[in-house]
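Honest question from a wet-lab person: if I give you the sequences of every part of a complex, can you actually get the arrangement of the whole thing, not just the pieces? Trying it with mine:
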Amino acid sequence: MFFSKSFGYALRSILYVVMVNETQPRVQIQEVAERLQIPKHFLGKIMKMLAKEKIIDSAKGPFGGFFVNDGTVSTPLLRLMELTDGLEQFQECSLRLKKCNADKPCPMHNRIVQNRNELITMFSSTTIGDLIRSDDKKFINSI
Amino acid sequence: MFFSKSFGYALRSILYVVMVNETQPRVQIQEVAERLQIPKHFLGKIMKMLAKEKIIDSAKGPFGGFFVNDGTVSTPLLRLMELTDGLEQFQECSLRLKKCNADKPCPMHNRIVQNRNELITMFSSTTIGDLIRSDDKKFINSI
DNA sequence: TGATAAAAGGATGCGGACATCTTTTATGGT
DNA sequence: ACCATAAAAGATGTCCGCATCCTTTTATCA
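Yes, you can. This is the full assembly:
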């Protein structure tokens, strides 16, 4: 439930790059894919997108790879979600009724909206950096 | 976000059958599909499944159709979710990590688990009947 | 300047959710 | 017995998330 594989892959690969960059200037797709058990070519697409969107930086050629930039650790999870899954899912009616809204709620609306808002708040206020600080350094074994 | 189309179709069609059954002994797929704007043949599969699982009853032939049974209104939403989407989604790690659990949580685990449990509680404790009582009788315009 | 390394980009394939259409089976009315 | 009706069942089709593979571009170094 909840998030696409792309979101999970994106989040975990960013976390990995941030961690490894503390001791190593570049990280290559190959390494990330092997370490995190993510299909290499698919991960390539995702990390390329993350670089294009300036969540991380990249360099081609020998000794190239991916690395953090000034904004990486302060990226909110909601921004990641926007890039991988889109934010519409947070807005639209859980029964996908076009007409459902706070004034004319469907039977599920008021049972869902609070829970959903809590999730949005968490995604807005939590950053990549928060996730890393949240855990000890054996952390890398859990991504 | 969150629920399959099948879940929405199933829930709405059950609500419709319960409502209409107050004044009419049988409801046909054709009517449900038109009224709720659901693809007819796809709805047929879903309602057939609901009948097989005894959430509602059905009768073939002239004057046949679908109708409520003794258990219909007391069906918890979680049971519906189980039938349409499965319950695994509520259990598995939001990053889909096999090893993630309360003892060795991934960075997202503790940020998700409470929110998710609230959702499970709501789905367990809310029944079809609750959804109908929750609204006034213009309700049918919102499904 | 040529060889090599690594990301960027494009083409293709697969499986499952969603959707459509046709055939079969059961049932009540004549 | 026969016919009309409506659900059950099955065959087929579409689209998208996910995945794989191949080619191109860019950078580094000898």
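Two things worth pointing out. The mean pLDDT of chain A is 93. Residues 26, 28-30, 44-45, 47-48, 51-52, 58-66 of chain A lie near DNA strand C (CB under 10 Å from a C1').
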